[in-house]
Amino acid sequence: MKKFIIKRLLISAVILVFVAFIIYTLMRCLPTSYLEQVARQKSMTPGSKSFEEWMQQLSATYGMDKGILPGFIAWCGKALRGDFGDSWKWTVPVIDKFKESVWVSFIMGGIAFILELIIAIPLGIIAATKQYSKTDYTITIVALACFSLPTFFFASLMKLLFSVKLGWFDLGGLVGRNYNQLTSGAQILDKAHHLVLPILTLVVISIGSLMRYTRTNMLEVLNADYIRTARAKGLSESKVIYHHAFRNTLIPLVTMLGGSLPGLFSGALITETLYSIPGIGFVSFQSMTAGDIPFSMFYLVFLAILTLLGNLISDILYAVVDPRVRIS
Description:
Layout: H1 2-28, H2 34-43, H3 51-61, H4 68-80, H5 94-129, H6 134-148, H7 151-165, H8 184-194, H9 196-222, H10 225-232, H11 237-258, H12 261-266, H13 269-274, H14 280-289, H15 293-321
Helix pairs in contact: 1-15, 2-3, 5-6, 5-9, 6-9, 7-9, 9-11, 11-15
C-alpha cells in the first residue's frame, strides 16, 4: 500500500505539472485581463501616459512581459514557496482572499454532502428492496424531480416562498443588518440562519442522482447468485441486504463519492450567486470575468490537486470496502 501511494503521488505530480502548464497557457491567452482595464483607466487620465506604455509598465510589474514558458517556470518557482502573488481584482494576496472565502463554501458543501448521504443512500436502498412497489415509484419520482430541477429555478422558488411570502429568511447575504451588534454566539447563529436556504438548495438538487445511482447498483447486487445463496442459507433479510448486498454496492459509490471532494472546496457558483453568499465559487467567477490571472490560476490548479487526490482516495477505499481488492 505504501509503495502504491508513493507511486500514485509521483504520477499525480507529473500530471499536475502538465495540467498547470495548460491552465497557465489558457490564462495568458485570455482575450482581456485586469491589466488592460487598469491600463485603459490610467491612460484616460489627463496628462497620463499612453495605454501601451501603461501596459508595458504593469506587465513588467506582474511578470507578464515574459514568454509563456519562462513565465510558467517563474510561477512554479514562486508557487513552491507558497507565493501565488496578489489578486489583481481584490488587491490582496491570493492566499488571503482564498482563505477568506473557501471556508464558507466548505461549510455549505460539507453539510450538504453529509445530508445528501444520509437521505439519498437509505432511500435508494429502500427503493431497490421494494422494487415496483408504490414506495419505489414514489422515491423514483422524487429522485427524477430533484435531478431535473434547475438550480436557479429552485433557488428562486425557495426565496419567493420562504423569504418573500413567509419572511422567514433574508433574500440574500451571509449576515443580517444588525450583525455587528450581536454577541459572538448570536453571530454564529445569524450566519447559520442565512445558510439554511443555500444548503437546502444544494441538498435537493444533488440527492436525485445519488438516489438513482444507489438504487441501480443495489438492484444489480440483489440479483447476484451469492445473494440468493445467502437467502437460501436462512440469513435474515436485513443481514442479506445490509451486510452482503450493501457492502458490494459501496464499490461503485466510492468512485462517485471520491470525485465529490473537489466540490466541497470549489463552491457552488450558481447557488452562491443567487443567495449572495461570498464563497469561493462566487469569488472565483468574479475573478475570472475580471481577468484576474493570479487568483484564477491558483484556484484552477487547486481544483486539479483536489481531483487527483480524490481519485487516489477512491482507489485506496476500494480495498477498504471490498476484501477482494488488494493492492500488490
